[in-house]
Amino acid sequence: MDLKEQFEKAIADSKSLSEKPSNDTLLQLYSLYKQASEGDISSDPPSNPFDFVAKAKYEAWAALKGKTSTEAMTNYIDLVKKLKG
Fold this sequence. Notes:
The chain is mainly alpha-helical and 85 residues long. The chain has one domain (3-84): Acyl-CoA Binding Protein (Up-down Bundle). The protein has helices at 3-14, 23-38, 52-62, 69-84.
């Protein structure tokens, strides 16, 4: 199974975990997914100072700037494996 197939399987597996991950872990999954599928973030930060979820997502993804798609996919796969136990 190549990396892309493993990544897609990990995405599917992440949707059927036995326990809901913590918010921090969900942010990790989100940012790794975005970095793997879209690369470095290219949008401006959210303009609404009270939209804490959007701000957290933006900051988590922006923190991965420079990480390659391959690295992000590998990290995502490893994190899902860890969550599955």
